[in-house]
Amino acid sequence: MGMFDPLKGFGVTFGTMFKKVVTEEYPEAGAPAAPRYHGRHQLNRHPDGLEKCVGCELCAWACPADAIFVEGGNNTEDARYSPGERYGADYQINYLRCIGCGLCIEACPTRSLTMINFYELADDNREDLIYTKEQLLAPLLPGMEQPPHPMRLGETEQDYYVNGPELAVAAPDVQARSEAK
Q: Which residues make up the binding site for [4Fe-4S] cluster 2 (predicted)?
């Protein structure tokens, strides 16, 4: 212990005392997150509005915190939510349990589940931290109709993926052929 050690400690205090204070007005003007930050989950859609989730429950199996609940349902001719035979009828993520590890993202075979950089996940009510499918689904593009609607690119799931879901809006002749059958 030197005689000037206390003065060295106060040197940091005196050095910052006369600098301008940087204050962020957080609730009014939130700071942008880093571009690669992984926050809240999102269930993605195909460009034609159909859900990418096929209800396989692999994300729930991969979750080490048991924070995801998925119940698959079968698509019908009248109600089609995804291009496959199944869709995620009930989907919930409990953010009280979620540890943000991203293993669910890696397990998803259709790239349906991703993480966006929304970071405000705190709440004073426990029930509000259990996000349902409606809260997690990506919004529809402007001009899109609400699902369920018929598969637009063919009669089978294989036709849908071979022709490509991005061609759904640009290929009305394929839609007309599938409706004529």
A: 63, 98, 101, 104
Segments of the chain assigned E as strands: 41-43, 68-74, 86-94, 113-115, 130-132
Could you tell me the pTM of the whole model?
0.69
Kindly list the domain boundaries of the chain, sorted by start residue: 40-150
Is residue 162 marked as binding? no
Tell me the chain's radius of gyration from C-alpha atoms. Answer: 24
Give the tens place of pLDDT for each residue, 6-57. 888 888 888 888 888 888 887 788 778 888 888 899 999 988 888 999 999 9
101 belongs to an annotated ligand binding site:
yes
Q: Is 56 annotated as a binding residue?
A: yes
Answer yes or no: are the C-beta atoms of 87 and 81 closer than 8 Å.
yes
CATH architecture designation of domain 40-150:
2-Layer Sandwich (3.30)
98 is known to lie in a ligand binding site = yes
Longest dimension (CA), the chain: 94
